[in-house]
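Chapter summary example.
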Amino acid sequence: MTEMTKLREALDAAGIKWKDDSDNRFGLSICRTKFTNKNGEYCSVIYGEGVSYGWQAGLLESMPPIRKDDVYDDDVQGWLTADEIIKAWI
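The structure predicted for these 90 residues follows.
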């Protein structure tokens, strides 16, 4: 099971509506899931081979970051497992 599949299944189990906003542009395939987290924040989680932070390990990238601090204030955060996103937002 991919990390994105695991995230989507957890969203379904929690009754959180999500949108598959995946696309293929410029020769790049990006799997994207959009939803509103438990804090009311609009979230976009992606996996894109050769594009997203952590794709080499099959991991996810999130905007906004699940951890907000000096490093991830308003940027993306990559190298995330589905479990980390689930724990923070579902």
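To summarize the output: The mean pLDDT is 93.
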